[in-house]
Amino acid sequence: MTGQVEILGETFSFIDFSETRFFDLPCVYLMAHEDASGAIHIHYAGQTHRLSKRYAGHHQLEAAKALGATHALILIVRDTRDRREFETMLRWHFRPPLNAEDVPTHMNAWRAAMHCGKSDVAFRARSAHLGQAQPMHAPVFNQAKVERG
To answer: Is this prediction's pTM over 0.70?
Structure first.
């Protein structure tokens, strides 16, 4: 898995787990892998002020690897509140199996989406809160990758 992928309207970069030590950046991240069919499997969603430090002793890294994870999908986000809100949206949207926290409520997802300017996610969260059926996303999706040159 190389390149970039669009998730919730933002471009995430694929970083091999072995390369995370070189990224001393604030970001939201996903632990993931791509299967033979091109589907991307999300195992964990998080945020950090320093990716290199976070991955050095991450409590879910070995569990994610056991599920097949090979890469971090990262989006650089400098502001702490923005990172936390984006992580909330990712956890609500994908419901990654290795996140120990409860799935955010629909209203928490709505608030996070509104903060991040993601009206489509906010609409789905609000609709779910009001009991209007909205398709929930599994932690697996197909997305065309953009190869790095």
So the answer is: yes
